[in-house]
Amino acid sequence: MSRMLKRIAILALIGAAVALGLEFTQAFRTLPALASTEEQATRVVIEKATRRLTLERNGQVLARYEVALGSDPVGQKAREGDGRTPEGVYSVDFKHPRSRYHLALRISYPDARASEAARQAGVSPGSDIMIHGVRNGLGWLGGLHRERDWTDGCIAVTNAEIREIWSRVPEGTTVEIRP
């Protein structure tokens, strides 16, 4: 290989490393602006069986996204570490702008019922269930992350999709997770 090609290859590798490093450290990340009121969702519906997240506004579909779920998604979440995505009606109680998974919307799990069931079983119900993007530094995977369920119980979309969802889902929005 000529010296020029070697230099170009080295510069390309350095450029890729810098880009990955910036994504991993979240340097220069900007938050998406909140969409206009008529473009904001009033409900998020997640259907585990079909691996689909739907944004609705007053019963009308605004957008749909394919998702990856917890590593053992069938059934209700019973305890921390079981790999299940919970089922039920919750709300977005916090938007995490510095998540390790690009951006994240935390869901209000566990509710009183899940907390009590876990207490009776002598286990932790788990917490920090989120709708989030791909782990920082791996955004280049795009939709490939959906090839298998991989989260600890969260709902994962691509980084571009979580930016859209972030802009259209204000805190307090209802989230229904169906089997």
Tally of domains:
2
Instruction: Indicate the low-confidence ranges by residue numbers.
Output: 16-20
| SS field, number of helical segments | 3
User: From the alpha-carbon coordinates, what is the Rg to the nearest angstrom?
Assistant: 19 Å
Structural class: alpha+beta
Oligomer: single chain
Largest sheet: 8 strands, mixed
Average pLDDT reading = 89
Going by CATH, the architecture of the largest domain would be: Beta Barrel
Distance between the termini: 56 Å
| Global shape | globular
Helix content: 10-25%
CATH class of the largest domain: Mainly Beta
Which percent range describes the beta-strand content? Answer: 15-25%
Order of helices and strands: HEEEEEHEEHE
Number of strands: 8
By CATH, the superfamily of the largest domain comes out as L,D-transpeptidase catalytic domain-like
Question: Which fold name is given in CATH as the topology of the largest domain?
Answer: L,D-transpeptidase catalytic domain-like
Short description, anyone?
This protein is α+β, with helices and mostly antiparallel strands and 179 residues long. 24% of the residues lie in helices and 23% in strands.
Give structural notes.
The protein is of the alpha+beta class and 179 residues long. It has helices spanning 3-25, 112-121, 159-168; strands at residues 43-47, 52-57, 60-66, 88-96, 104-107, 130-132, 155-156, 174-178. An 8-stranded mixed beta sheet has the order 3-2-1-8-4-5-6-7, with helices on one face.
